[in-house]
Amino acid sequence: MIKPIKRHESIQPLSRDHHHGLLLSWKIRSGISKGVDINRIKKYVDWFYTNHIKPHFDIEEKYVFPILGSENHLAQKALNQHQNIKELFLATDHLEENLRMLEQKLTKHIRFEERELFTEIEKVASKNQLEQIKEVHPDLRFEENSDDEFWK
User: Fold this and answer.
1) Residue 111: which region, alpha, beta or left (left: phi > 0; alpha: psi -120 to 50)?
2) Is residue 96 within 8 Å of 32, Cβ to Cβ?
3) Which residue, among 112, 140, 121, has the nearest Cα to 8 in the 3D structure?
4) d(Cα 64, Cα 59) in Å, to the nearest integer?
5) DSSP symbol at 113
6) Would you give the DSSP letter of residue 62?
7) 33-36: long-range contacts at Cβ-Cβ below 8 A with a sequence spacing of 24 or more?
């Protein structure tokens, strides 16, 4: 079992977002394996993208990745993954195939950010940069959409 990584307090809210992203992946897998109508899953995924992923990605792209610089290979990899994941969230055709790919790519991306990218950011970030992240992403309680809990 992998030991949990202790994050700087400024980055902890982003890591909590990642936890909910991993739960999204699980919900997608669970819904598909239970034969839930793919449109029900997509409706939830669309809500999650608008309310959680998009704001999370915006904060990372504007305040977190620039800490490493635009030429940094880890930051470039994360930006490329964000673009690919956004395309999968916004896809409206081949829903089951795209949701399966989304689930896999989102999980892999979150693991990359937690294990590699955030570790590097914590090494090089200044106190002011970490404080700025804390200011733009306060530690808020996750708001679930319980209109259709298809994964249960």
Assistant:
1) alpha
2) yes
3) 121
4) 7
5) I
6) I
7) 34/150, 34/151, 36/150, 36/151
Cα atoms found within 13 Å of the Cα of residue 48, Cβ hemisphere only:
28
The ranges assigned to domains in the chain are 12-136
- Asked if residues 79 and 65 have their Cβ atoms less than 8 Å apart, the reply is yes
Residue pLDDT, tens place only, 18-43? 999 999 999 999 999 999 999 999 99
d(CA 74, CA 51): 26
SS3 content of the chain, % helix, strand, coil (to 5): 75, 0, 25
Mean pLDDT, range 118-128, rounded to an integer: 97
Sign of CA dihedral 122, 64, 44, 37: negative
pTM tops 0.90: yes
Is residue 134 within 8 A of residue 9, CB to CB? The reply is yes
Helix axes 73-90, 95-112, angle to 10 degrees: 160
Q: Is the dihedral of CA 130, 131, 137, 139 positive or negative?
A: positive
Q: Which candidate, 131, 45, 116, places its Cα nearest to that of 78? A: 116
Give one DSSP letter per residue of 114-134, joined into a string.
Answer: IIIIHHHHHHH--HHHHHHHH
